[in-house]
Amino acid sequence: MRIYEEKQRFNQWWMLVINFSVIGILLYFMYQWYIAGNAVDKVSSSDYAAQIAVILMLVLVVALLFLLGLKTTIDENGIQYQFRPFHRGKKTISWKEMDKCYTRKYKPILEYGGWGIKPVPKSNDIAYNVKGNMGIQIHLKNGKKILIGTQDPDNAQIVINRYFNNEGI
Q1: Where do the TM regions start and end (predicted)?
Q2: pLDDT digits (tens, 9 = 90+) for 59-69
């Protein structure tokens, strides 16, 4: 295997429940305003500016949850990752920048406070993860540590071993 590619999304059951709940709330609000003619909280059925603001906010929340994703590529150049929509393009870490690189099991909540883009306070550590508890641990020569979540650590490690010398790990 010469190239490892992985795309991860927040598609856990509980994320889908959140998305569909927000969509349900939006549909309820629209029914109350446009069909029943009732106010919802402080937004009356004739306050179109407030209705548009509420609708846009809820649509943006759903869109953000659907757009969130982590793409990882490992090849002869190094490791590229992109956490959409926060990274406009791929971030690349070349093999020359790395002191160590390996896959490992980690504790998302205890070590990083959960999933997402998770900087660790008072350290140079950061995690980019979507789900699960397996990741690609990168120790940079400048002392910074980056963990990139993976759902396929075995194949990721095969490609890492191909391009990076892991002596001493």
Answers
A1: 12-36, 48-70
A2: 888 888 788 89
Helices (runs of H) and strands (runs of E) counted in the chain: 4, 9
pTM, two decimal places: 0.77
DSSP structural state of residue 9: E
Read off the tokens for 147: 């963990």
3-class secondary-structure state, position 136? strand
- Partnered with residue 78 across adjacent β-strands are 75, 94
pLDDT at 38 over 70: yes
Q: Give the Å distances, CA to CA, from 55 to 27, 61, 62, 135, 160.
A: 9, 10, 11, 37, 46
**Whether 25 and 96 share a structural domain:** no
Residues 91 and 151 in one domain: yes
Give, in degrees to the nearest 5, the angle at Cα 11 between 10 and 14.
Answer: 95
